[in-house]
Structure formats: structure tokens, C-alpha cells
């Protein structure tokens, strides 16, 4: 591979621009960052491996965007404002070239620029298989991070956007469906948009939140376990795209919006008194926020309402995630 | 593999114990950490890949120790006090078992307990090849991090401990030498001790510092480039073990202490006025600190003095690292 230090200087150092003169980005043993009074640091880490977390044919630009996006999505779920990130890149020799690295750095830059966050360091190594680990960090007012443990019986369950798109995009890519017909789903798979702004505004409003990375029901289950409550979800109210509606009608497979991962929307709970505020927030941010169910007493279980064709058990969907 | 969440709950959550009630370790979308007034955050990231950064036969305990140690060594070089770390573990199926994971978690615990630092999160994924990325974070008084750029002409160059041991250990393992005779070198390769305490006390004393991970000359070169100075190094004064002396006599290869990596000692510079203080510090900490050369004007070059057999060029050592 091109020498590690050349790769860093050429492609990654330009992404590193720290805020003040007494801070250090790339170029020393570590980065030095100033803290903000009254803030807590939120730290998240996610690894993407070629062929496991994204199809091998994904473009370098999209891989980089997604690697950062999935981390920013975790920050969003906690209501944190993204501050900086580090990158551990394990690079196979066939990707260690100007064109690939330029596109990869370009993908990072595209998303990082939206939030004005610098790359502050990391490590570049050789590997058989492309592996990207990003640790992203953000700030939240002390004691104000949105946690999974705050859901209370009676709270309403909401999700942002539409669900199942990432899973539909993966099917489209894997099964070589017509790309144009599934463009938005493939876009969602390869270049998801983290709900950072929504997360920021949910602080003090949501009683709990999580991002939908492993599938709605699996992720909701984490909220329920942490909060020691149960829930019901109205399957008919789970928001889906027109494309997904067509797919469900044709395939009779209605599981994707419930169990497919890679959506990176937020699932959150609110006290019923805040329903109007949530609708106003949706209008203000010009995003869709949909009520899909409610928290109930009793630990951990999810009851599905309005399941198609009289099916009620998750097992009948072939779903054994938990 | 055992389910990711089971692995986390069983092996890694016990390593996560944050300091105060309003902090979060493992178990949410991210960790939430409180900041300290007047402190800056130092962030370092290092990846270790099986077969690249450690021999395949290395024990799970030693792999974990080393993965954390190389990061703490970077924090030490900046004078930072370790605070917490996150772990991205890509695990092949043959290592996803109780015995391996228990030993791996045990190795992390052994070293983390020395500094009372919690594992605050991360990601566990499947992979063909064992890959470990740790991001470690520490605190340093604002503006007091030791940087690479502070070396001035006339400053004396010091190193801690003895050099080349990691490289000698690697040779011993790769060439199946008698393990008992090279025990301390193999120990240095597999289970290096980061110089955290030394780094802490060098703040305000060292004008620059770096850890010796890529070899003394390569790492010293980073100090020289950042500080825009040159240096001479007295080859005879570079501290080596008895074992290394024997190896050099037998092999006539005197390059290891200068160019072998994996030592994780500190190389630092001080103003000559602080020479006595450094000797007092060495006595107090009961470690060896050895003067090996001096910073001079002129950019980036290293002149070697007292090279054996009249050899003076790095190239004659087969060394083309820079």
C-alpha cells in the first residue's frame, strides 16, 4: 500500500480542521479537544465490513458516507450534537489507490460538512477485507442525553420517515432488480441520512429513543428491556413508501418494515401530552413523524395489532431476532 | 457467532463501570461521559490485525492487553491520564467461544484495572480475520498536552527503558528460538507496558514526546519534522538489554534498537537545564531514562554517531522507512 503517512497526509488530513488554536487534529500521537462547560460527551462506535454491512459493489463514496452516517445516527438517538470523529481504516491493496481513496475521503467530507465536524485521527492498516470503524463523538447538555430507559406505560411510540427501505434496497441489489424502480430504497441502503436535527429537538420531549439499525421490533425491544415495560404496535400504521407498498402487495411479505435493518430512522416515545408538540415539530423540520403504538406495563413483550391475514406471531414472519 | 448482545452482556459489560450516576457506559446507543473543568480530551485510535500486528499464535489475553496498551502508550506520549476506552472487535467464528472471549476480556481487564478505566462501548462484528480497534481517551490540563512540535536545538533526547526488545521478541517467535532465553523480549512483544506514569510526569518538563511504536529513528523523525529541527543520536548510548547485547554480538545486526517497532517506550526531548530533574524522576519512578542524543538546527535529518564498524548510513542497515 502507499505508505500510511502519505495516505493520511494526502486524503485524511484535509478533513481535519479543529476549532481553536489550542486544539490538535491529525498529526500527533493523539488529538486534543477542548470541552464545553455544562456539556457531557457522547461516544459511539460502529464497524462496517465489506460484504457483511454493505454489498461489495458499493461505491467508495457511499461506503464512507454510510460508515459515518450509522455513527451519527447513534448520536442522534441520544440527542447529541456531533462534534468530531476518528477513523480506523483497514484497506485491501486493490483499494489503496488514488481514485478509491479520493472517493472515500469525498464521501466522508460530504456528510461531515453537513455538521461541520472534523476527522481528528485514527489508524490506517492493511487488510484482506475492507473494514471501517468510526468512533464519533458529540456533546449534550449535562444530564439531557435521551436514554433507552425512560419509556413509561401510556407513552406513545413514534418513528421518523418510512421503514424497511434499507432492507428493500438490499433485496433489490442482491436480487438484481431494476435499479430505477428501487432507487430510493437503494439510496436508503447506501446513503442513509442520520436524523441528527430531529434527535437534537427531541431532547426534553422524548422519554426514550433509539435508532432503527437492526429493525424496528428488535430496536424497540431494547427500549422495552431498558425501561422494563411492554408495548403494542399497530402494523397498519407503520409508515412505508409507495415502493414498499407495491413490494408488499406483490410478494405478500409484510415483514420488512418491522424487521429489516439499515433504516437509521429514530424510534422514540413521548408522553401523550406532547402529541401536538410532536406534530408541530414534524411540520417545522419537514419530516414525517408517525405514531405507531403505545407503551404498556409488563416487561419486554411486543403485541402486534392489525397484522395482515390474521397472522399475529413474530415467528410466523420467520423472525427470531429475540 | 453467539449473538452480539449476549457477547456484550457476558464478557464486556462487566468491564464497564462509569464514575458517576449521570454517566452511561455500555447499554445505550452511546456512552455519556462527564467532562472535567480545565481539562482537554485526548483521543487516540489504534487497530491491531491478526498476523499483521501480532503473531497468529498470540494468546487471547495478550492480544487484548496489547490492543489496549498501544493506545495507552499514545496517551502517555501526550502526557494524558487515561479515562475510558471503546472497543471494535471483528471476530472470526473459531474465536467466538466462551474460552477465547473470557481470556480476551481478562486481558483487557488486567491492564484497564491498572488505570481504573472503564470500557464504555464499541461494536462486535463477524469477520474472517481477528481485528481489534480501540479508541482510548484521556484527560490533560488545558494547553498542557506534550506535542511533537516543541523540540528546540540544544534539547537533549532521552528514551525510557531499553529499545529493540519488541523486534527481538518477534524474531524469536517467528524463527522459533528458545523461548526461555528470549522471555523478556517476547513479553515486550506481546504484553508491552505503556509508560503512562512517565508521560504524566513529563508534562511541563519534556519539550516534545512520542512513543516508540515504529522504531526509534522513524518516531524521532516525526518529532524532528513537526519541530522543524534535526538531531544526532549516539548509537552506543541507545539502551539495550543483555539479551539484545548477546544477539548483536552473535548476529552482527545492530539495527533492532534503532529501527524495530513495538517497544512502546517514550522518546522525548528536554531543555539541558532539566537534566538533573530527569535523573531524579528516573530514580523516583524506578525506570531507566537514558540520554541518547541532541536536537540540532536544520530540518528532519538524523546523524548517527558511534555506529559500529564505521557504518554511518541508515541505508546500510537496509532501512528505508523514510
TrEMBL record, chains A, B:
Known catalytic reactions: thiamine phosphate + ATP = thiamine diphosphate + ADP
Keyword presence, Aminoacyl-tRNA synthetase: no
Domain annotation PurM-like C-terminal: ranges: 152-300
Highest rank taxon of the organism: Bacteria
GO biological process annotation, one example: thiamine diphosphate biosynthetic process
Positions that bind Mg(2+) 5: 214
Broad enzyme group: transferase
HAMAP family named in the record: TMP_kinase (MF_02128)
Similarity remark: Belongs to the thiamine-monophosphate kinase family.
Further remarks about this protein from its record: Reaction mechanism of ThiL seems to utilize a direct, inline transfer of the gamma-phosphate of ATP to TMP rather than a phosphorylated enzyme intermediate.
Protein name: Thiamine-monophosphate kinase
Species the sequence originates in: Hydrogenovibrio crunogenus
Amino acid at each position: 500500500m502507499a505508505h500510511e503517512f502519505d495516505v493520511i497526509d494526502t486524503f485524511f488530513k484535509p478533513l481535519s480542521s479543529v476549532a481553536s488554536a489550542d486544539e490538535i487534529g491529525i498529526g500527533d500521537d493523539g488529538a486534543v479537544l477542548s470541552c464545553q462547560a455544562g456539556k457531557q460527551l457522547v461516544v459511539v462506535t460502529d464497524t462496517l465490513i465489506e460484504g457483511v454491512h454493505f454489498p461489495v459493489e458499493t461505491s467508495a463514496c457511499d461506503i464512507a458516507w454510510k460508515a459515518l452516517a450509522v455513527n451519527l445516527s447513534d448520536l442522534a438517538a441520544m440527542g447529541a450534537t456531533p462534534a468530531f470523529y476518528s477513523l480506523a481504516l483497514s484497506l485491501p491493496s486493490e483499494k489503496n489507490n488514488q481514485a478509491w481513496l479520493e472517493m472515500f475521503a469525498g464521501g466522508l467530507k460530504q456528510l461531515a460538512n453537513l455538521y461541520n465536524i472534523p476527522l481528528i485521527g485514527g489508524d490506517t492498516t492493511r487488510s484482506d477485507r475492507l473494514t471501517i470503524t468510526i468512533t464519533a463523538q458529540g456533546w449534550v447538555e449535562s444530564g439531557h442525553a435521551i436514554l433507552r430507559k425512560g419509556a413509561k406505560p401510556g407513552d406513545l411510540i413514534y418513528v421518523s420517515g418510512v421503514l424497511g427501505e434499507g432492507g428493500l434496497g438490499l433485496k433489490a441489489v442482491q436480487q438484481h432488480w431494476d435499479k430505477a424502480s428501487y432507487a430510493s430504497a437503494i439510496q436508503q441502503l447506501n446513503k442513509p441520512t442520520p436524523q441528527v436535527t430531529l434527535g437534537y429537538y427531541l431532547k426534553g420531549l422524548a422519554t426514550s429513543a433509539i435508532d432503527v439499525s437492526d429493525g424496528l421490533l428488535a430496536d424497540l425491544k431494547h427500549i422495552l428491556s431498558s425501561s422494563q415495560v411492554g408495548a403494542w404496535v399497530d402494523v397498519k400504521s407503520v409508515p412505508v413508501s409507495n415502493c414498499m407498498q407495491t413490494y408488499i402487495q406483490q410478494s405478500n411479505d409484510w415483514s420488512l418494515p418491522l424487521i429489516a435493518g439499515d433504516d437509521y430512522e429514530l424510534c422514540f416515545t413521548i408522553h401523550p401530552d406532547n402529541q401536538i408538540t410532536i406534530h408541530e415539530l414534524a411540520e417545522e423540520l419537514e419530516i414525517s413523524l408517525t405514531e405507531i403504538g403505545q407503551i404498556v406495563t409488563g416487561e419486554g413483550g411486543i403485541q402486534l395489532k392489525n397484522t395482515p391475514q390474521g397472522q399475529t406471531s413474530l415467528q410466523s414472519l420467520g423472525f427470531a431476532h429475540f
